[in-house]
Write a structure and sequence with these properties.
About 65% of the residues lie in helices and about 0% in strands. It is mainly α and about 240 residues long. It folds into two domains: about 110 residues, no CATH class; about 120 residues, ARM repeat domains (Serine Threonine Protein Phosphatase 5, Tetratricopeptide repeat, Alpha Horseshoe). It is globular.
Length: about 240
């Protein structure tokens, strides 16, 4: 079984400091920015996905250790490994992965980490169960936990179930952060891709109140005349 230390030695060999510096700027790691202090090795996501296939025999203890790394790519790889394990694991394994994920949310601290994992671990685990955990996450003071709540509902959207997305979208209409506006708008757009009537039912009720970024993301695929009507407040 590969251990976290063995995997990190491979990541050290693959590191590209110049690319890492670019990623630190892209992911807003400067003072006062949303990912302040995060560190990057400079490894591209397709490379990490290949490593996830190679190392999917890692045990959950080592995956959890990797998730606590100082380096962003290590944490993303850990999450990709957990997603793969959850997809093929039995109920007990999925429960353990879910609990591990929730215990270590402090290390899932950027939008790409959340987006790669929340639907597959939180959304999938809560399918057929109480969704009160999603509401607690949506009310969290932590930006990334709120994004987890929204992105977890992608699991249900893909299965034609939209109630949880719409409920959380209503809760987050007044959220102060742009990354939540984008996440909610994106999920509403995904609802519309499957049932435009459902999306527009929500939009007609709330679009006057929605943050501009949220609305723009939600209506991105609309025909231009309809998109402009929403943006100008002329939809009745």
């Amino acid at each position: 079984m590969p251990a976290a230390r063995e995997i990190q030695q491979e990541l050290v060999r693959l590191a590209d400091p110049e690319k890492g510096a670019d990623l630190q700027r892209f992911f807003k790691t400067g003072p006062g920015e949303y990912a302040e202090g995060d560190c990057f090795r400079g490894i591209r996501v397709p490379v990490l996905r290949k490593l996830a296939k190679r190392y999917d025999g890692i045990d959950l203890v080592d995956a959890g250790e990797l998730l606590e790394s100082h380096y962003h790519e290590d944490r993303l790889l850990a999450l990709l490994l957990l997603v793969r394990k959850a997809a093929v694991g039995d109920g007990e394994t999925r429960e353990t992965i879910y609990r591990l994920y929730r215990e270590k949310t402090a290390f899932i601290n950027n939008w790409d980490l959340v987006d790669a994992s929340a639907e597959h671990i939180i959304g999938a685990h809560l399918d057929g169960k109480s969704k009160s955990a999603l509401e607690r996450l949506a009310r969290s003071a932590n930006l990334w936990e709120r994004r987890m709540a929204v992105l977890s509902t992608f699991y249900y959207i893909k299965r034609g179930r939209f109630q949880e997305t719409l409920r959380l979208a209503s809760m987050l209409l007044d959220d102060p952060h742009d990354l939540i506006h984008k996440a909610v708008g994106w999920m509403l757009r995904e609802v519309g891709q499957r049932d435009l009537q459902v999306e527009e039912g929500f939009l007609r009720k709330h679009y006057h109140r929605m943050p501009r970024t949220m609305l723009r993301y939600a209506i991105e695929k609309f025909p231009e005349p309809k998109r402009q009507a929403y943006l100008s407040g002329k939809i009745k």
